[in-house]
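Researcher: I'd like a candidate sequence for this fold, 85 residues long. If you have to choose between options at a position, lean toward the conservative one.
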């Protein structure tokens, strides 16, 4: 079982979504991928700790492969941003 460590120094009761995400990334992304991104963003802010791929898949009634596909999508967007594509 693959685990994702989610951590932040600050626990909050709200989630801030950047304008860059809303304006540039969200319109091009699959809706299920956006759900996973927002879920992980929320988990980071809430100090939720470790979530497994299986737990995330169950939360959204998706397969583990769907969640991995979403994570790979966001990782590739992060890489594109890092290299300035």
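Model: Candidate sequence:
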């Amino acid at each position: 079982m693959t685990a994702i460590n989610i951590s932040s120094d600050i626990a909050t009761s709200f989630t801030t979504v950047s304008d860059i995400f809303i304006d540039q990334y969200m319109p091009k992304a699959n809706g299920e991928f956006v759900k996973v991104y927002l879920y992980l963003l929320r988990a980071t802010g809430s100090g939720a700790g470790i979530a497994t791929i299986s737990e995330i898949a169950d939360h959204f009634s998706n397969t583990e492969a769907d969640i991995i596909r979403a994570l790979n999508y966001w990782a590739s967007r992060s890489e594109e941003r890092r290299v300035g594509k």
